[in-house]
Amino acid sequence: MLLLESSDFCFVLYAKKVSAMKKSMKIAAGSVLGLGLLFLVAGRSLGDLAGYFRASADETVSQIEDQIPDEVHDRKLANELTSVRKEVIERQVQLSQSKTQIAQLREDTSKLENTLAARKRLLSEAFPILQAAEQQQSQQVRFANADYKLVDFQREIDDLMASQESETKQLAIKKSGLTRLEKSEKEAESALVDMRHALDGAEHEVAVLKSRREQAEVESKTLDMVTAVSDGVHTTTEGVGRSLDRLRDNVTRKEAVNEAKRGLAPVNSRSSTNQLARQWNRLEALRKYQEENDSAPKAELPIQMDSIDRIEE
Q: pTM of whole model > 0.70?
């Protein structure tokens, strides 16, 4: 019972999925049909619509390719180079086989030429003998250390001449074919060399570009690090600069306060109870009096020590 219920449930889910797929296909077909009708109403051909679809597909594929990691592109390139390398090897094998066949054809042609040359000499030697036999109406003919009846000799000559004519035609065909094959062999060998050089150049360029890419990545990371360090140094320098400015202001302010206190020290010394301070203030005051006295006109005034004591008191 549970098995039947689960089967029914699976069937319902499958039916819903099929229905959803049908709806999606209908919507897509309706959209395409609507676009087609819109292009037709606008007086544009369906080829333009196909061109837009193709351009959109190309753009989408380009965006997808840009999102693919470099490792995947490198693997794809390596597979393509391997495929080209295999193709070059296969072409090399085919060229080797063609060279073997051409060499065999060249050997066959040489043998046929030798055969035709030998038969030609034989026929040229048979001509005076047959001519003499026919003129003398001889029934026996001796040729090539063998005796022939005239009729048999004539038949043998006819066979030799037929073979000579047939094989001469064959030789002409083989020579023509051999010439074409040798030309094709040279062209194929040149194309194969170009293909091999192009493959070697591509592999070398791939290696160089990978090295340059790695160097560029290292340089980019280094520049990023330099930028980050420069920003950090700038921020740190700004902080240090502010602290230095604050320290300068603090020192200047304290020195100004001390300078102000130093200017007020003689006045404050009158009420000070510190003996050392009083002595220092006394000497400073006397120094000022001396400076004023030196700068003032000279006058003879008697000074009594008791008056000085009274001043200090």
A: no
